[in-house]
Amino acid sequence: MKRLINVIMTLAVCTTVLAQIPVPALMPVPAEVEYFDGRYVIDADFTVGIEGSMGRRLRNAAHRFLRRLDERTALFLNHNTVAECSFSLKINTRREGALKLGEDESYQLLIDDESISLIAETDLGAMFGLETLLQLLSADSEGYYFPGVKIVDAPRFPWRGLMIDAARHWMPVEVIRRNLDAMAAVKMNVMHWHLSEDQGFRVECKTFPRLHELGSDGLYYTQIEIKDIIAYASDRGIRIVPEFDMPGHAQSWLCGYPELASAPGHYEIERRWGIMDPVMDPTRESTYKFLSAFINEMTSLFPDEYFHIGGDENNGKHWNANEDIQSFMKANNIPDNSALQAEFNRRILSTLTDNGKKMIGWDEILHESMPKDIVIHSWRGREAMEESARQGYQTILSNGYYIDLMQKTSFYYLNDPCPEDTPLSIDERRRILGGEATMWSEYVNYETVDSRIWPRTAAIAERFWSPLTVKDVPDMYSRLAVISLQLEEHGLTHIKNRSMMLRRLCRTADIHPMLVFLGTVEPVEVYQRGAQKQHFQYSPLSRPVDIALAEAVEANAFRHWVKGIMEHDHDGVSQFEAMRRQLTTWQQNHLHILEMANTAPALKEIVPLSKALADISGVAMQALKTLSEHGERRDAAWITAATQLLDSARVPYGQLELQIVDSVKKLVDAASN
Q1: 181-224 pLDDT, tens digit each
Q2: In the chain, pLDDT over 70 holds for what percent of residues?
Q3: Does 285 reside within a domain?
């Protein structure tokens, strides 16, 4: 079978040509794709039939498919799924898939002029095939159609997750539901739900009600809501794995039950971010009696076979200061806090095992005394994941997928759980289950979280699903631009909320100057935001830094223009003129920003950066004039002045950084050499 992966598409229309056949944007890229001449034309008579196993989940998926297809085409389709001989799309599955690790999620899709056939071992595979089919939808002047294609597809990793932290900042039910829909669209199958933290305990607990009553500010999920979300996820082929962090990151637990703590005191919900001292006492039997009862209730609420205990970032200060704990350690030959936490983890593991669950925890639970049937979730580095695999543990990678750190899509996309140069043996590689995009919520709320998860997570989803050889970055960006728009149909706010938030912040409907500015800046990466300005749980998340995207689109386009000039790969006068127009816009925009800041003082923090944008745009114009007219090289005085402006423009303001500085520097260097 012909293997076609890494399909190249142009950014303008997101299609390429294979024997003159337009190729749609697919994400994740299927394992095997063969396009051929022909198309299946879609009209109002389009129907769907299901053969073989036709359970409720597959029927619901088929109805959602028809509804989304109808909304994209406005064809007034017949939404009844049938099991007869005459239909446009025939779905054939052998059985209902189990929502468990390693279930068969493969499918085959064949489209020709006469019919569409989707075959899968399980309904889960068929559901993923329906998502691919929707991405194949094409149109021209004659109408809508699916191109002729044969696809044989299966995921590379069985664990393809997204972690949503609903503890630090509360995420309402509608946020979770729309993100589950988006996950299904890009073939992700695990939502890791971070539900307890120093800043909040987010689940109704009937055994110990003070957990949610005193530890949540009234913002928690009822058990009915939890069950509804689990059912909603299951209907989309997604498992829900809960995380209740213990023994550290537990201050919200202690608000209602201070007897769990290793240090006496009155505990309140923590409003700061960081690693806090409060930690559960692992030496008292009452702690385990409490946690056993708690786990009994929560494991009956969450049906998945895996249960995440967190286990990270216990600084041990309260253990070190507690004489009883130190005496316990001495009496039981426990040499250090790591061994003490391992003892705690073994006790929790026993309770989980009694409830039919498997333990997952962050890197810190890795200890020589722990059995091999736990899963290590690596956040501190690839080395920790590889060491876990070497020692015989199954493992999941999140290091390199922290989307809250605002790194570029290409960074996440090229980070692979098991790259070509992995030092692991074949058996050790099999222990790498996959990975998770990780959305910590210190700097997001319900208005901004979608824009931090999407569309970048679609590229991460491709890394978890598609073959290792699929890693063409320009091609990925081209397809991602299309997928980002398609994701809006699930109610995601990653695009539309920007304008709403800008209108509110700017106190006007005329937000164009801010859109121009935001096209050139990005939030500071990694952990710089907290270092540059202290935030609390109640700090506003409505500033320009919260509205800016992780990748500045106009700055990226300018970078490509400059690259073309440096490599003498451009179309001459027209490209120089386009660059001049862009630079002129950036120069003139500063006056508009100043005017807006007079009536919207919240914008004043970015005025220096707007001024820097105008200044270096002027420098770039001068350099461009030299390059386009082949004039004399710029003198030393000009170079010195330009360099000073560029250095000044690198300084962040409002936790934002200009993204055209390096590009302008290249123009300056070229104009002076």
Answers
A1: 999 999 999 999 999 999 999 999 999 999 999 999 999 999 99
A2: 95
A3: no
* Position 659 in a domain: yes
Hey, what are 317's tokens?
A: 């200060």
* Boundary of a domain, candidates 109, 125, 153: 153
- End position of a domain, from candidates 153, 171, 188: 153
Q: What is the pLDDT of residue 82?
A: 62
Q: Which residue bears the tokens 């938030």?
A: 501
Sign of CA dihedral 381, 384, 387, 391: negative
Q: Which are the catalytic amino acids? A: 313
Identify the CATH number of the domain in which residue 53 sits: 3.30.379.10
Contact 240, 193 (CB under 8 A): yes
The predicted pLDDT at position 80 comes to 78
| pLDDT at residue number 446 | 98
pLDDT in tens, 336-352: 999 999 999 999 999 99
- Is the pLDDT assigned to residue 17 strictly greater than 50? no
Per-residue pLDDT tens digits for 649-664: 999 999 999 999 999 9
Return the pLDDT at 14.
32
Residue 268 lies in a domain: no
* End-to-end alpha carbon distance in the chain: 53
Whether 524 and 656 have beta carbons less than 8 Å apart is answered as: yes
Per-residue three-class SS string for 596-654: HHHHCHHHHHHHHHHHHHHHHHHHHHHHHHHHHHCCCCCCHHHHHHHHHHHHHHCCCEC
The number of domains in the chain is 2
pTM above 0.85, yes or no: yes
Show the tokens assigned to 615: 């200044």
How far is 42 from 46, CA to CA, in rounded Å? 6
* % of the chain beyond a pLDDT of 90: 91
How confident is the model at residue 641, as a pLDDT? Answer: 96
- 3-state class of 343 per DSSP? helix
* Per-residue model confidence as pLDDT tens digits over 600-646: 999 999 999 999 999 999 999 999 999 888 777 889 999 999 999 99
CA–CA distance, 335 with 337 (Å, rounded to integer): 7
Q: Which two tokens stand for residue 383?
A: 């080395």
Written as one letter, the residue type at 504 is: R
Structure tokens, 577? 């003129």
Burial string for 97-113 (b: 16+ CB within 10 Å, else e) reads bebebebbbbbbbbbbe
C-beta of residue 104 within 8 angstroms of C-beta of residue 237? no
Provide the Cα torsion 205, 207, 210, 213; round to 10°: 30
CA distance 297 to 671: 69
Q: Name every residue whose Cβ is closer than 8 Å to that of residue 102 and which is 6 or more positions away in sequence.
A: 158
Cα(341)–Cα(325) distance, integer angstroms: 12
**Measuring CA to CA, which residue among 518, 399, 522, 535 is closest to residue 452?**
522
Which residue segment(s) compose the domain that 143 sits in? Answer: 31-153
In a domain, 613, yes or no: yes
How far apart CA 262 and CA 260 sit, in angstroms, is 7
Mean model confidence pLDDT for the chain = 94
